[in-house]
Design brief:
Layout lengths: L1 H30 L3 E6 L4 E4 L1 H7 L3 H4 L4 H4 L7 H12 L3 E7 L4 E10 L2 E8 L1 H29 L3 H16 L3 E8 L2 E8 L19 H8 L3 E3 L2 H8 L10 E9 L2 E10 L7 H37 L11 E8 L10 E9 L2 E9 L3 H19 L5 H15 L6 E11 L2 E9 L5 E3 L5 E3 L17 E6 L4 E5 L1 H4 L2 E2 L2 E2 L1 H11 L5 H15 L8 E8 L4
Antiparallel strand pairs: 1-2, 1-5, 3-4, 4-5, 6-7, 6-10, 8-9, 9-10, 11-22, 12-13, 13-14, 14-15, 15-18, 16-17, 16-19, 19-22, 20-21
Helix pairs in contact: 6-7, 6-10, 7-10, 11-12
């Protein structure tokens, strides 16, 4: 009797100890910050803590003893199911993240196999992944705006700006189509559109009021307009959308202080919930595009003025000289908004006499254009009373010193020409300009030995005079230093390459000789000029 009581007492103590251990384990597992559950070798729940109940959205009594794949049949074949199988088969821990469509939750899962089954820790990482997604989206938007800014910086005209804007807007916002529209005199003009294929937008040339929808509303209101669905369109504008291919739309005005230049409109393939981040991105995009478009418009106006000015500084047409071929190639450096510093002129100076001038003014822009025009016009004026090139250059130097800004100078090579039997006689002088090259019919080539001081720097200047006779078939090549100083890396084109190019064109007419020089120089410099380039070729017509 005594032995039996002692045995029962020991058993009860062991059971109490076991219960206490389980309760302590339960408290420990319930107090951890993660959801935890245990599965036996058959996948049945053997333990579920409080947090696991919450995350799995099932009370403990519905889970314990039940197979996990019976409770969650949709998980069969999922990454969790595959990782469970691998952990059990290989006896190796598994860590992964999986989205549960049933629970609308992202889980971070850590599974540890044992002889009795699997211990699983779950963490809800939905918010963390959402934050990460927002950060990635923000970074993508920042990269998109940076790419837009880079593209707009390189765009110099309105068409280029529009092309960059619509392509980058589609990429950054994931739009199916995009169009940049400018407003002029109340009419819409599509500058560029992307993604439409052969479905061109139908608003080009229409009045602003004739096009209901986010495009016209954005231009009138000056704010971003976003329409997330067809139903919202009908509620907002009282009529079906004319755009049957898209399901959502947005438009941002291209605003400047003086008003809207137009708008950028985007269409999306699926309904969209436009959030604050989308509107902020559209505003930033619209501001960049508006500024670039305004700059491009200004550039186009300045370019047009520069073009007119450049044309006014050069002969309108080349004269026709008896028994003389004449060809010119002129390529100013810089963009279309700048006036080149090189100038040339060929004109009749008197009965049977002609004059040719080729010059290079220091610098670019308006100030250079003033000196450019003054030099050319002064040469013409002085030549009316004086034929000697040395005297003409001295008079031009005095005029530049008197009327110039004192900061610019120029080089000039000047030749007066007159008929000499069946050829031509030339008298030449140079003010710091590269010497002309004479190409004879037999292939011989020579540089005309003329040297002299630059114009516009000193009052006392010296210039040499040279006489050259051109027989039928002979040619003379005048050029600016932009030809010989053309670069490929650090290497100059140089005088020898020019002589070779001229000599290899022996026997061709003036146009072909000018083409040859231009082509060789451009090939050497890979089409990238470093300075204005001008070439004037005279060739005495060969004997019949």
């Amino acid at each position: 009797m005594s032995v039996r009581l002692e045995t029962e007492t020991e058993l009860e103590a062991a059971l109490r100890s076991e219960r206490a251990a389980r309760e302590q384990l339960d408290r420990i597992l319930s107090s951890i910050g993660e959801a935890f559950f245990a599965l036996d070798a058959d996948g049945r729940f053997t333990y579920v803590n409080d947090r696991a109940e919450t995350l799995l959205d099932h009370p403990r009594h519905e889970l314990l003893g039940e197979a996990i794949w019976d409770v969650f049949p949709g998980a069969v074949g999922s990454p969790f199911w595959l990782q469970h199988q691998r952990a059990m088969d290989e006896g190796a821990p598994a860590e992964f993240e999986e989205y549960s469509a049933l629970l609308a939750t992202w889980f971070a899962v850590r599974a540890y196999p044992s002889e009795g089954g699997l211990s699983v820790f779950l963490s809800d990482v939905t918010e963390r992944r959402a934050l990460l997604a927002r950060e990635r989206a923000s970074a993508a938007r920042a990269r998109g705006l940076a790419a837009l800014a880079e593209g707009l910086t390189a765009a110099v005209d309105a068409e280029a700006v529009a092309r960059v804007a619509v392509e980058q807007a589609r990429a950054v916002l994931g739009a199916e189509v995009a169009a940049l529209v400018q407003v002029e005199d109340g009419l819409l003009h599509i500058t560029d559109a992307s993604g439409y294929g052969d479905r061109a937008p139908r608003w080009d040339g229409l009045a602003l009021d004739a096009v209901p929808g986010p495009l016209s509303e954005a231009i009138r209101s000056g704010g971003v307009v976003a329409v997330g669905s067809r139903e919202e369109w009908r509620q907002r504008y009282g009529e079906p959308t004319p755009d049957v291919e898209n399901e959502a739309w947005a438009a941002v005005p291209l605003l400047l202080r003086r008003g809207a230049l137009g708008a950028l409109k985007l269409g999306f393939a699926a309904p969209r919930d436009f959030g604050p981040e989308d509107c902020e991105l559209l505003l930033a995009l619209g501001l960049q595009v508006a500024q670039a478009l305004d700059r491009a418009r200004l550039y186009e106006r300045v370019s047009e003025i520069a073009h007119v000015l450049q044309q006014g500084l050069l002969p309108r047409r080349l004269p026709s000289m008896p028994h003389m071929e004449l060809a010119v190639r002129y390529r100013p450096l810089g963009d279309a908004a700048e006036v080149g510093g090189d100038f040339y002129d060929v004109f009749e100076a008197g009965e049977g006499e002609w004059a040719l001038a080729l010059g290079d003014v220091s610098g670019k822009g308006t100030e250079a254009a003033v000196l450019n025009g003054m030099a050319r016009n002064m040469i013409r004026a002085i030549t009316l009373r004086e034929r000697d090139p040395v005297t003409i250059l001295a008079s031009l130097n005095a005029a530049i010193l008197q009327h110039g800004d004192g900061e610019r100078f120029c080089t000039v090579v000047l030749a007066t020409l007159r008929r000499d039997g069946d050829g031509w006689a030339l008298t030449l002088a140079s003010a710091g300009h590269p010497p002309p090259l004479v190409l004879r019919t037999d292939g011989g080539i020579e540089a005309v030995p003329v040297r002299g001081d630059l114009l516009g720097l000193f009052g006392d200047v010296n210039h040499e005079r040279a006489e050259v006779r051109l027989a039928p078939g002979d040619a003379i090549v005048f050029h600016t230093d932009g030809i010989t100083e053309a670069r490929r890396g650090e290497e100059l084109f140089g005088d020898e390459r020019l002589r070779a190019a001229v000599q290899q064109a022996r026997g061709v007419d003036a146009e072909a000789l000018a083409d040859r020089i231009e082509s060789v120089v451009q090939d050497f410099a890979r089409g990238v000029p470093r300075d204005d380039e001008a070439v004037v070729v005279l060739r005495v017509s060969p004997r019949p």
